[in-house]
UniProtKB/TrEMBL annotation, chain A:
It holds the Pfam family MbtH. Gene3D superfamilies: Structural Genomics, Unknown Function 30-nov-00 1gh9 Mol_id. This is MbtH-like domain-containing protein. PANTHER family: ENTEROBACTIN BIOSYNTHESIS PROTEIN YBDZ. Residues 3-53 form the MbtH-like domain. It comes from Phyllobacterium endophyticum. The lineage of its organism: Bacteria, Pseudomonadati, Pseudomonadota, Alphaproteobacteria, Hyphomicrobiales. InterPro entries: MbtH-like_dom, MbtH-like_sf, MLP_fam. GO terms for biological process: siderophore biosynthetic process. SMART domains: MbtH. One of its GO terms (cellular component) is cytosol. It comes from the Bacteria.
Automatic annotation (TrEMBL), chain B:
It comes from Phyllobacterium endophyticum. It holds the Pfam family AMP-binding_C. Gene3D superfamilies: 3.30.300.30, 3.40.50.980, ACP-like, alpha/beta hydrolase, Chloramphenicol acetyltransferase-like domain, Luciferase, Domain 3, Nonribosomal peptide synthetase, condensation domain. This is Non-ribosomal peptide synthetase. GO terms for biological process: amino acid activation for nonribosomal peptide biosynthetic process; secondary metabolite biosynthetic process. CDD domains: A_NRPS_PvdJ-like (cd17649).
């Protein structure tokens, strides 16, 4: 026996924080503070695949900026 | 109707002429009767109804109402009759009235205290069901205003709903309201049930339950205590709570809106509670059915209620309403297939080999109209939630649970959570299970909080902290390494020179440098130089496999490799990196001053490679800011100072190893760096003593050896602190090191590399005890929080297992080159107000009562096998308890032969210990449920360790197929015995040293062997005891050859040695003594035991022997061996009668401390003397003819003739009745010992032996046990208190039956306890 209700498949989104770190989050759960949903969604795995494509610079945003400034000042 | 109040009739003998007919009991009644028999009144306590009457109501009026209500309901007049042999029936006399006790009068009323005391005493008074009626009433005149009436009814004729009926009718009678006519079926319920159980309708209902519940079921309940044994003591605890009227009103409105009953909403809240607490969404629990159709129609007082199992599947995303609907339909289907629960349990629990788990562990009960405020307990299940509307429009509720099984604090919290679930369910439409919040924000704040730490951190990176001491205390020792002593100045200057060189080579922010030298001061110089240059270091152990190292060097994108010339060959070609050979490097031209490179907090400090469970190691990248803050917090928690001198034993390939050298150096202290990857325990302790270490950090995998050595040699120096980590720390190991390592503090560190070194610690004083398989892992350190979460990221309540998540500042940037894996493991932190991530650890944990975290196991270390969820750590803990086992590991793997999943255990002996696998295996069989006992145990010299000092599960060998050496017979006697064994056992090749019982032999096989031997050697006096005592072909053949001198014993020595009094085990019907082996094993080497061969298997067997004759041999033997000495008896089944008689016969000749009675039943009614069988017209003659026909076909004709020949006419009639009642045809498969016919013959023979036997009183200490299943079957257990003043009420052993109780571990532990008590 099971609950007589068809469960919709869960959908997830690609999310990013202020330091431009990426992660995934389910659409049916309130998005934690400091994170914003990106355009990409789908299954959890699909979202992770997308992140593999788009997250090319692992450095947090503040470090990236600092290193850029340093590089320019040299 | 107006009959005056009857006097107390309990003393009066029953006038049999008074009733026309008596009727059988229902199964539920039989169970209650059996419990009553063994003196247990806690499972089903008496039902009580107390009503306070205003004084306008006269005593006389109440008395008349009592008489009137008793006239309406036979239950209030029910009497019980025991027939010869023990069958029980019930009957009711029309004129009976329950006895009424009246206390106080108008002139002399009782005050409140007196009234309460009198009422309590009245309730506590036991019933005499054979001597009086099953209900009684007390009337108390209390003060001027009130008369208090208290009805006490025996649970055998009353249930909770019946109490409501009684209340309603009493009130109606007193207030002169009319009562509608009533169909009182109480007397007939048992008969109707008996008839129904024979119908097709029952068969199909049973089929429904078999299909629904099946064999692999898992009854859900709240988490149980650590080590909660399967024995549930009778102590119950209650957690009561109230729900205010607004909630109940909302529940009712919600139910109405959705077209369901309000109790289904309550039941759904309970179901959700169970699912959230157990993590199991395939629910199996019980609900209590009043089992009365419509509660407004007239009802009889009777015992009607039934436990109805509910089994249904939900999902975290199911809406609460879906759960309600699932319950409604499960309940409807279950009700239409209702079978007596006692019968259901018997039919489902048919696996005889393993102890049975209850089908219903938790029960929901809604009481529609609960009289008065006090709620009747519900104690026939491990855990029950009872809810009932109260007078204020709200709900009264309580959890009633077994004290031994559940932690009261956990149940109290569950009560709070039940209320939260209910509130959220009815106030938030469409809410789903997973949306419900159990743990409130403020609780979570406390639970997740790190160690209190008032200090403040600065942002200087780690290397700057270390360098500062080169200025402050330049000459102070920093590193001791073999014969070298490095000062802080030397360390700093060397690091500076190398740093300048690295900067020239292009090392800077986020550029990595490989440290490919062994653990040494040079390695530390290299690390500090890299940090000073602004780079990130990657430790590479030269000794590690080259493939692994090559992967690290390529994957980590190293710019510079620091190594030694002799290690060059290990560096792969084609890397775009500069290689510096430290032994050849001339840095004399480089300045020894600080290069003054400033680092950003988000700049990388190191990359640490960790072995995942699969694939290549992953590089975990850690930044400076989190690292230095972590180190400063850790310094304070560990109490580090410039006095600290630490021996860091952890390898440099684990991040913990780096924490433990950085920490002392940052504080201006020093380290003793081991000059070899591994030191022996002796070397380690010597180094600590020699160099005055006060701290040591040791991998958990090495602790056991170290502690054992310290214990053996008493060589541990006094220390301030030991810290350890890397693996779960088993309780035994912790207790040992706590005792022998002479340390003030102990820190169990825990932490994935991804959350930087040791993000959690459990810091305790030596000697601290803990409950659980592994040592707690404590709390978070520094700017971190830890959470135990369910798969939907909901915080788990204390005591509930969930996955550990770590959040806050102290975590890695991510995995090098793996953005998707980083995004997968580091997720947004839903508990943070200002952003941040949580790391998902993959470890199963739970919060303890004190808010610290306990490690339960790996997520992937919990396995499911044959429907059971198994935590492998529990099996490992059981292995570690065995003598000589130093390390243990259990995995689930595919059996190569059968392709089935099996559990395989790996064990490493302690130093100098030899392991006997068979002994360990049988010890596990004693201590674990069958499904948890590994199929194979493999002994290893050491556990395979991966480069990070962690166990390498993938390097474990498959268990070798069991190779048996077949030893051929050496002489004619052995050849002869071998031939017989082969015929009897029909197994494969047999070695002359194989144990009879371990190759499939059993008692029946043993008898066959003896018969075959007797045919070949008619003069042989070898007995079954000889075979049991000599269970190999070789030893048995020797007995045969030795002839009469050694053979002929009826006694089996189960254990010869031991200082405790001898335990004599008396066998039951068809029971050999082999069954006692597990028991004797459990009782241990100090408990000697002797077993007697079952009479029916013995050689001297004669037809029509008396009990006195049977015990003759036993008594002689005991007298000869225990005269004047202390001893114990154990009697199982009918053996209990033999033990009792032997005790009577021996009297004071022995010092008998205790007789333990195990499920001892009276003889059935069929053959009892005086029991006169009833036959229908012509039935007797036709049965006689059936027997004659059968005998003409039987191969055991001669034996039957002998047996029937000793029967008189009455007994033969009883035999015919017995045959007529048998459902199956008479067997003709004899005379083989395993045939049904042979068993039948033994049964009848025993009946003849025992029918003539009368138990006489004897003053002897007796403790008895009853198997749960025997109670469910209503077996006629003997209440020994009727015969001895020193007998106790029986204890119940759950999950077992008459045949298997003797092997039940729950029984063993209780028996051991009682034997010790009697010592």
């Amino acid at each position: 026996m099971s609950v007589p209700v068809a469960l919709e498949p869960e959908t997830w989104s690609v999310v990013r924080d202020q330091e431009e770190r990426y992660s995934v989050w389910p659409d049916d759960k309130a998005l934690p503070a400091g994170w914003s949903r990106q355009a990409h969604g789908g299954t959890r795995d699909e979202c992770l695949k997308k992140i593999k494509e788009v997250w090319s610079d692992p450095r947090p945003r503040s470090l990236r900026l600092a290193m850029n400034i340093q590089a320019r000042s040299r | 109707m107006n009959k005056p109040v009857a006097p107390d009739q309990s003393g009066k003998p029953v006038d049999v002429e008074d009733f026309s007919r008596s009727f059988p009991l229902t199964l539920a009644q039989k169970r209650i009767w059996s419990l009553e028999q063994i003196g247990n009144s806690s499972v089903f306590p008496p039902q009580v109804l107390t009503l306070d009457w205003e004084r306008s109501v006269s005593l006389d009026r109440i008395q008349k109402a009592v008489a009137a209500v008793a006239a309406r309901h036979s239950a209030l007049r029910m009497r019980f009759l025991r027939f010869a042999g023990g069958r029980i029936e019930q009957f009711a006399n029309a004129g009976d009235v329950p006895p009424i006790e009246t206390l106080g009068s108008d002139s002399n009323p009782l005050d409140a205290d007196e009234a309460d005391a009198a009422r309590a005493a009245f309730i506590a008074r036991p019933f005499d069901l054979l001597g009086g009626v099953s209900a009684r009433c007390q009337l108390i005149v209390c003060g001027r205003d009130t008369i208090r009436s208290t009805f006490v009814l025996h649970p055998i004729i009353c249930d909770v709903a019946a109490i409501s009926v009684l209340q309603r009718e009493l009130v109606a009678l007193v207030t002169d309201e009319p009562l509608v006519p009533l169909d009182d079926d109480c007397l007939l319920r048992g008969l109707r049930e008996e008839e129904w159980l024979e119908t097709e309708s029952f068969a199909s209902a049973l089929a429904y339950w078999r299909k629904l519940i099946g064999e692999d079921y898992n009854a859900v309940t709240l988490p149980v205590r650590f080590n909660a044994s399967s024995y549930a003591g009778s102590t119950r605890l209650h957690a009561a709570f109230e729900l205010e009227a607004t909630v109940w009103t909302e529940v009712q409105a919600y139910a109405k809106r959705n077209g369901i009953e309000p109790q289904h909403v309550l039941s759904a809240a309970f179901a959700i509670l169970l699912a959230r607490y157990s993590g199991n969404h395939e629910l199996l629990y019980g609900t209590l059915l009043a089992n009365r159709c419509g509660d407004k129609s007239p009802q009889a007082v009777s015992r009607s209620e039934q436990v109805l199992p509910l089994r249904f599947q939900v999902a975290p995303r199911s809406r609460v309403l879906d759960v309600c609907h699932a319950i409604v339909s499960a309940e409807a289907e279950g009700t239409s297939n209702l079978v007596p629960f006692e019968r259901l349990v018997q039919e489902i629990q048919t696996h005889e080999e393993r102890e049975q788990d209850a089908i219903v562990k938790s029960l929901f009960e809604f009481r529609r109209s609960q009289p008065v405020s006090s709620l009747q307990p519900r104690s026939d299940v491990e855990l029950a939630l009872v809810v009932a509307p109260n007078e204020t429009g709200g709900l009264n509720a309580f959890f009633d649970h077994a004290a031994d099984i559940y932690e009261p604090a956990l149940v109290e919290r569950a009560a709070t959570h039940f209320q939260r679930i209910l509130r959220q369910a009815v106030t938030t439409p469409e809410i789903r299970m997973k949306d419900i919040e159990l743990v409130a924000e403020d609780e979570l704040e406390l639970l997740s909080a790190p160690y209190a730490d008032d200090g403040t951190n600065d942002d200087r990176p780690v290397h700057e902290h270390i360098a500062a001491h080169a200025i402050r205390t330049p000459d102070k020792t920093a590193i001791i390494f073999a014969d070298e002593v490095w000062s802080h100045r030397r360390l700093d200057q060397n690091a500076n020179r190398l740093a300048h060189r690295l900067i020239k080579l292009g090392v800077g922010a986020d550029v990595s440098v490989a440290i490919a030298v062994k653990r040494s001061p040079e390695a530390i110089v290299g690390i500090l130089a890299t940090l000073k240059a602004g780079g990130a270091y990657i430790p590479v152990e030269p000794d590690h496999p080259t493939t692994r190292n090559h992967h690290i060097l390529r994957d980590g994108g190293v710019k510079v490799i620091l190594t030694n010339s002799w290690l060059l060959e290990r560096i792969p070609d084609g890397l775009d990196a500069t290689i510096l050979e430290l032994d050849k490097l001339d840095l004399s031209q480089e300045p020894d001053t600080d290069p003054k490179v400033s680092v950003h907090t988000n700049q990388l400090a190191y990359i640490m490679y960790t072995s995942g469970s699969t694939g290549l190691p992953k590089g975990v990248a850690v930044e400076h800011g989190p690292l230095t803050h972590h180190m400063q917090n850790t310094s304070r928690v560990y109490g580090m100072s410039e006095e600290s001198r630490e021996l860091p034993f952890l390898p440099f390939s684990s991040d913990g190893g780096h924490e433990r050298w950085m920490n002392p150096l940052m504080e201006g202290g020093s380290i003793i760096l081991p000059d070899q990857p591994l030191w022996t325990p002796e070397e380690t302790l010597t180094a600590m003593r020699k160099h005055g270490a006060n701290n040591a950090s040791i991998p958990t995998t090495y602790l056991q050896q170290l502690a054992e050595w310290a214990d053996l040699t008493d060589s541990a120096p006094p220390m301030r602190l030991y810290s350890f980590g890397g693996e779960g720390l088993a309780q035994q190991t912790f207790d040992l090191l706590s005792k022998v390592l002479k340390s003030e503090w102990l820190i169990n560190g825990y932490g994935p590399t991804e959350t930087i070194m040791t993000p959690m610690v459990w810091k305790v004083r030596a000697g601290q005890k803990f409950e659980g398989t592994y040592a707690p892992i404590g709390r978070a350190v520094g700017n971190r929080r830890v959470y135990v979460l369910d798969p939907d990221l909901n915080p788990c309540p204390i005591g509930v297992t969930g996955e550990l998540y770590i959040g806050g500042e102290g975590m890695a940037r991510g995995y090098i080159g793996k953005p998707d894996t980083t995004a997968d493991r580091f997720i947004p932190d839903p508990f943070s107000k200002d952003g941040g991530r949580l790391y998902r650890s993959g470890d199963l944990t739970r919060w303890r009562e004190d808010g610290t975290v306990e490690f339960v196991g790996r997520v992937d270390h919990q396995v499911k096998l044959r429907g059971y969820r198994i935590e492998l750590g529990e099996i490992e803990a059981a292995l570690l308890e065995q003598d000589g086992v130093g390390e243990a590991l259990v995995v689930l793997r595919d059996d190569e032969a059968t392709k089935q999943k099996i559990l395989v255990a790996y064990v490493v002996p302690k130093q100098g210990a030899e392991l006997t696998i068979a002994t360990i295996h049988s010890a596990l069989e004693r201590s674990l449920p069958g499904y948890m006992v590994p199929s194979a145990i493999v002994a290893l010299k050491s556990m395979p360790i991966n480069p990070n000092s962690k166990l390498d599960r993938f390097a474990l060998p498959a268990p070798a197929p069991v190779e048996r050496t077949i030893i051929a017979p050496e002489n004619p006697a052995e050849e002869e015995v071998l031939e017989i064994w082969q015929n009897v056992l029909s197994s494969g090749p047999i070695s002359v040293e194989d144990n009879f019982f371990s190759i499939g032999g059993n008692s029946l096989g043993a008898i066959r062997i003896l018969s075959a031997l007797r045919q070949r050697r008619p003069q042989s006096r070898t007995t079954i005891a000889d075979l049991f005592n000599n269970p190999t072909i070789r030893s048995f053949a020797k007995i045969i050859d030795a002839g009469d001198e050694r053979a002929g014993s009826e006694v089996i020595v189960l254990r010869a040695s031991g200082s405790k009094p001898m335990l004599y085990c008396f066998p039951g019907l068809l029971v050999s003594t082999r069954e006692y082996v597990k028991l004797v094993d459990y009782l241990g080497p100090d408990q000697p035991a002797t077993g007697f061969i079952c009479y029916s298997l013995s050689e001297q067997k004669q037809i029509g022997a008396s009990v006195d004759e049977i015990i003759e041999g036993y008594v002689d033997y005991i007298r000869a061996h225990s005269k004047g000495k202390p001893c114990y008896f154990l009697g199982w089944s009918w053996g209990g009668l033999l033990a009792y008689e032997a005790a009577r016969r021996l009297g004071n000749e022995i010092d008998l401390r205790l007789i333990t009675m195990v499920d001892v039943c009276d003889l059935g009614t069929e053959f009892a003397i005086g029991s006169v069988p009833r036959f229908k017209q012509g039935e007797r003659d036709s049965l006689h003819q059936t027997v004659e026909d059968w005998l003409s076909r039987s191969a055991m004709r001669a034996e039957w003739d002998r047996l029937l020949g000793v029967m008189d006419g009455d007994t033969y009639n009883q035999f015919l009745r017995f045959v007529g009642d048998e459902k199956e045809a008479l067997p003709t498969d004899g005379p083989d010992i395993s045939s049904r016919e042979h068993t039948f013959w033994i049964l009848i023979d025993n009946a003849l032996i025992f029918r003539r036997h009368q138990l006489q009183p004897h003053d002897v200490a007796i403790h008895s046990w009853a198997a749960d299943d025997s109670l469910n079957r209503g077996l006629n257990l003997i209440d020994w208190r009727r015969y001895s003043p020193r007998a106790n009420p029986a204890e119940i052993i759950s999950g077992t039956n008459h045949l298997h109780v003797i092997g039940s571990q729950a029984f063993h532990s209780r028996l051991a306890h009682r034997l010790d008590e009697a010592l």
